[in-house]
Amino acid sequence: MTEKPIVLRAAEVFQAAVEKLAGVVPDGFHERGPGGSLLAFTGSRIAALNGILSVDPASAAPAEIELLSTRAEQRGAGLPWSIRLRGEPEEKIVRIAADHGLTTITRQPFMLLPLTDGSLPVPETVPDSVRVRPLGGDEHETFATVLGGAFGAPPAIISGLYTPAVLDQPFLTAYVAEVEGVPAAAGLSIVTDQHVGLVNIGTLPAYRRRGIGRAVTGTILREASAAGAHTAYLHSTDEAVPLFAHLGFRTEESWTAFTA
């Protein structure tokens, strides 16, 4: 059997991780289209956490995207949602997205990092006053407050998704970086099938440009590697690409996202 390209395998693991997350959040649901595209809603008010995710070109057929778009409107209860595909979509899919009100198109760099001994990022020098540690579900409000402040979102949006029960799932780990005991940055790792996905690495404005976000990222990578993960993946904004490239990540491809 021919081995799948690393980037395709990482994309499939990411899709399965989203499906798994939708299966454990309080208001989540998920289903697959006939060709394998995923429809998953987490109940969040964030469009990227609801909608259609297709990682195999064969599953991104217009008929399947149309079918799942109709299902998204039926089951989404008015929540914002998105369509995300690898690469450039064909024109029919652009029209389908527009017909369902998804007229904003953005590109998302998909970045990978092999977690071998030789490529793990070297820990950067950070002040002794900075401590990165995992958070349990009983600290979900701390996680929500830091991420909300980092991304300019109400903490209730974060805590409504990452509840105590969700943060205590074995495949999820939330982290916080504290400066002299004060929470300053946070991030989330999702470890499935020997891959680790990095999600929502954010630093409060008053603590930026001190290497604290890199310290969170480095901690996640080293702990995931120690637990057996061999590949890390993430979707980045264009602005954050240099930060992750500095840690060794490489942009493997660009994804397309449709939102309202």
Task: Please give a structural write-up.
This protein is α+β, with helices and mostly antiparallel strands and 260 residues long. 32% of the residues lie in helices and 30% in strands. It is built from eight helices and eleven strands. The chain has helices at 6-22, 62-75, 91-99, 140-151, 155-161, 164-167, 212-226, 241-246; strands at 29-32, 38-41, 50-54, 82-86, 104-114, 130-135, 172-179, 182-192, 195-203, 231-235, 250-259. Strands 1-2-3-4-11-5-10-9-8-7-6 form an eleven-stranded mixed sheet, with helices on both faces. A hairpin with a 2-residue loop joins strand 8 (182-192) and strand 9 (195-203). The mean pLDDT is 93.
Trace the largest sheet across and list its strands.
1-2-3-4-11-5-10-9-8-7-6
- What is the number of helices? 8
Beta percentage is: 25-35%
Report on the biggest sheet. 11 strands, mixed
Rg from Cα: 18 Å
Q: Decide which structural class fits the backbone.
A: alpha+beta
Number of E-state strands:
11
SSE series:
HEEEHEHEEHHHEEEHEHE
Relative helix content: 25-40%
C-alpha geometry: globular
Q: What average pLDDT do the residues reach?
A: 93
Task: State the end-to-end CA separation.
Answer: 41 Å
Unreliable residue runs: none
Question: How are the SSEs ordered, and which strands pair?
Answer:
Layout: H1 6-22, E1 29-32, E2 38-41, E3 50-54, H2 62-75, E4 82-86, H3 91-99, E5 104-114, E6 130-135, H4 140-151, H5 155-161, H6 164-167, E7 172-179, E8 182-192, E9 195-203, H7 212-226, E10 231-235, H8 241-246, E11 250-259
Parallel strand pairs: 3-4, 9-10
Antiparallel strand pairs: 1-2, 2-3, 4-11, 5-10, 5-11, 6-7, 7-8, 8-9
